[in-house]
Design brief:
This protein has 416 residues and is mostly helical. The protein has 2 domains: 31-178 and 261-415, ABC transporter involved in vitamin B12 uptake, BtuC (Orthogonal Bundle), CATH 1.10.3470; 180-260, no CATH class. The chain is built from 16 helices and no strands. Helix 3 crosses helix 14 and helix 15 runs antiparallel to helix 16 (387-415). The longest helix is centred in the last third of the chain and has 29 residues, at 387-415. It is globular and about 60 Å long. Mean pLDDT is 84; it is low at 1-27.
């Protein structure tokens, strides 16, 4: 049973901590938490071999990040909704409607782009509040409310755009969606693996690895203090070293192409912010409490209706942000924008480790799940696979991820 936020912030280091009555088991790999990363590595290796190394080319890595940025943004919001035990089928339509509103303000009415972006995000929040009210305070299941929203806001999009596209967008919006950071410190002039790499991008990568290492070390130390399960020190060091190598490889490849995409900087800020929210903030712990055991959360004093309401507001804001990014990438607001985005976001959350019953999931896991879908799309495109083959593989991966989640739960229950 998931508990409500403890008073000691150091205890809130894992979205789903497992307390043990006996001594901590320090030499056991948590297959449920780590399996997604092994699967991601296996998929990358497979498509690297199948594409003759083209998958990991600098330009292609940049394409994977930019082309999937809006799905990853949606996945961050969707993982919170699913953790709380709900679902949102309307995000694709909200993406389309948000892009339409932004286009009308920026292109047709000539609003300054910062003001138009701010108002679009506010509209997304109001849409989320509308749906959150019906779910949290009126008691209608989220599946029904957001299914209705999927139809309503697609109709709004068609009404606003008049079944035609609107563009082009201001240069700043296009830069956020497709642009790259400047090489402020110049490039490395050496040959070999670092030849032509942007120095600032490399420094950002080194800092990111250092922050991850320190954060994981503090998390491990906190778990030991509370006698929770941790991995052995050699496994911990190997995990950090492997993560550091992967991050630096990606950063080096990006730095050799056109530096870091601006949308990657935005995604990094969102991942850090929402990870802190779910791991450290009381509200984040309450989301897990609501999804883990609604009755216990209510009896513990959690304002369940308020929590549910605000996660839908948050989903609306992130959907609007994804709509702006997608419209800026296409340089046009399109009536068909966001088609099936909700399915990709939901799949990313479940592949990334979210539980069907709620109460379990991580932001980083959702990002990893989204990248798995992106790598599958990109890799199969590089090898010339047909659309039906791509859909088949993605469906099989989603089914396997949920089956794995069910299997690990049964295995844990049998172990008790």
């Amino acid at each position: 049973m998931t508990s409500v936020a403890p008073s000691n912030a150091d205890l809130a280091v894992d979205p789903a901590p497992t307390a043990n009555a006996g001594p901590p088991r320090r030499f056991q790999l948590n297959l449920r938490q780590s399996g997604i990363y092994f699967a991601f590595a296996a998929i990358v290796v497979l498509f690297t071999i199948l594409t003759g190394g083209d998958l990991l080319a600098p330009q292609n890595i940049s394409n994977i990040v930019v082309q999937n940025s809006y799905i990853l943004i949606l996945a961050i919001g969707m993982i919170l909704v699913i953790i709380a035990g709900h679902i949102d089928l309307s995000v694709g339509s909200i993406v389309a409607a948000s892009g339409a509103f932004a286009a009308v303000m920026m292109v047709n009415q000539g609003w300054p782009w910062p003001l138009a972006v701010l108002v679009t995000l506010l509209i997304g929040g109001l849409i989320g509040a509308w749906q959150g009210y019906w779910v949290a305070y009126f008691g209608i299941p989220a599946f029904i409310v957001t299914l209705a929203g999927m139809l309503l806001f697609r109709a709004v999009t068609l009404t606003v755009l008049g079944n035609r596209g609107i563009g082009p967008f201001p240069e700043e919006v296009r830069t956020l969606a497709n642009g790259f950071t400047e090489g402020y410190l110049g490039n490395i002039g050496l040959g070999g693996a670092l030849g032509g790499a942007d120095l600032l991008s490399l420094l950002v990568g080194v800092v990111a690895v250092g922050v991850i290492a320190v954060t994981q070390w503090r998390t491990r130390a906190a778990r030991l203090r509370y006698e929770q399960q941790v991995e052995s020190m050699p496994l911990f060091i190997a995990k950090i070293a492997l993560a550091g190598l992967v991050i630096m490889f990606v950063v080096v490849q990006l730095a050799r192409f056109k530096n870091l995409p601006w949308v990657l900087v935005l995604l990094a800020a969102l991942v850090i912010g929402y990870s802190l929210l779910t791991n450290r903030a009381v509200f984040g712990r309450q989301i897990y409490a609501v999804g883990g055991n609604l009755q216990a959360a209510t009896l513990s004093g959690v304002k369940v209706k308020s929590v549910i309401f605000w996660i839908f507001v948050n989903m609306g804001v992130l959907s609007a942000l994804a709509g702006i990014i997608f419209a800026g990438r296409l340089n046009q607001a399109n009536p068909t924008a966001g088609d099936q985005f909700e399915l990709d976001a939901i799949a990313a959350a479940f592949i990334g480790g979210a539980a069907v019953q709620g109460g379990v999931g991580k932001v980083v896991g959702a990002i990893t799940g989204g990248l798995i879908m992106g790598v599958i799309n990109n890799g199969m495109s590089l090898i010339g696979a047909q659309t039906e083959s791509v859909m088949f593989v993605k469906g099989a991966v989603l089914l396997a991820a949920v089956a794995f989640d069910v299997w690990t739960k049964r295995r844990a229950g049998a172990a008790r």
